[in-house]
Write a structure and sequence with these properties.
It comes from Abyssibacter profundi. The protein has 12 helices and 10 strands. It is an alpha/beta fold.
């Protein structure tokens, strides 16, 4: 493990005003996105869509790095340049999603554990050869009747730490993603409790397994009301609860926290991030690692048509610019009118 390499890469990924584009949708997930615009999901349409995003002029001013799906890591731009090289040449760091998805956890009805540790060391060696400099692993924590259990939280925390240690062994920065889902009817107080339990377990495991905190990033959920909750917490309440929870359980040695959007609307995810950064006095950088919240307007504008590539790129550029401002606490709703 080269600690200096890991630290420099992690810091570059959370350079002020920059965040991470999550373009690592699995084949099944991207099909759902394409179904929404009546575009067939085949390798060429997936390649063309990612090509549109990655070749957006000026994206590198707001996006430090991109998480790729395994298929995408080995694809090429329309001019024949491998995506990993195209991004690196723009100063954007390429990364790779390495988990194999959440599967039912034995003996824990309604709960899951993420798989993919078998053979991961060998895969990481190949991914690094292909240009990947960081990786991502997502654990899923569900809120429901009597769940999450400590068993589920601990099983996922252990897997996250094992993944992170394997990444650092290959000089690949791990993004550690424990996602507490926001799909239920729970209050923001319940989300704060579950997020606290989860982060406490994750960092205990990271410490136990010798993970270099300075050479990793955290990708958590925001502390937010469940989507089905009749009373939704406002932006400032979400910001304060999230920052409070992170300060309690995330060591200051971690260089950056890049939030997932978790199905929030584009503008709400941006507003939440901005409100957190406006609080100030933070020991780590707070930025974004959004998928849908960065891509939804671009996907709709593109619609699978070559003649709409420029429109799709304008939509993507706008959302990236707004989130860049939010990562500095400089976002205003008036910026949306400039779209």
């Amino acid at each position: 493990m080269n600690a200096d390499t890991l630290i420099k890469t992690a810091q570059a990924m959370v350079e002020p005003g920059k965040g991470v584009l999550a373009a690592d949708e699995s084949t099944g997930t991207i099909k759902k996105r394409f179904d929404s615009i009546n575009v067939e999901s085949v390798e060429e349409t997936r390649r063309a869509y990612r090509d549109m995003l990655f070749t957006t002029p000026g994206m590198e001013d707001f996006v430090s790095s991109v998480i790729l799906f395994e298929e995408t890591l080995y694809q090429k731009s329309s001019d024949g340049t491998p995506f990993s090289k195209l991004l690196a040449d723009k100063g954007v760091i390429p990364g790779i999603k390495v988990d194999k998805g959440a599967k039912p956890l034995a003996g824990a009805e309604g709960e899951t554990v993420t798989e993919g540790l078998d053979g991961l060391r060998e895969r990481l060696i190949e991914y690094r050869k292909a240009g990947a400099r960081f990786a991502k692993w997502r654990a899923v924590i569900t809120i429901g009747d009597g769940i999450p259990t400590d068993y589920c939280i601990q099983a996922n925390a252990h897997a996250l730490a094992r993944y992170a240690a394997l990444c650092q062994e290959q000089d690949i920065v791990p993004i550690v993603e424990p996602e507490v889902l926001m799909d239920a009817d729970n209050s923001i107080e319940v989300c704060e409790d579950v997020t606290s339990r989860t982060l406490q377990a994750v960092f205990a495991e990271l410490d136990q397994q010798g993970v270099l905190l300075e050479g990793m990033l955290l990708k958590p959920n925001m502390v937010i009301s469940g989507k089905q909750c009749p009373t939704q917490a406002d932006v400032q309440t979400v910001a304060e609860a999230t920052v409070r929870t992170l300060k309690r359980y995330v060591p200051s040695a971690v260089p950056g926290i890049v939030f997932l959007s978790g199905g929030q609307s584009d503008e709400l995810a941006t507003a939440h991030l901005d409100a957190m950064n406006k609080i100030g006095d933070l020991p780590w950088a707070l930025s974004f690692s959004y998928g849908r919240a960065l891509q939804a307007p671009a996907l709709a504008a593109w619609g699978g048509k070559n003649e709409n590539v420029a429109a799709g790129q304008r939509a993507f550029f706008h959302r990236a610019k707004c989130n860049s401002a939010a990562a500095k606490g400089e976002y205003t709703s008036a910026m949306e009118q400039a779209a």
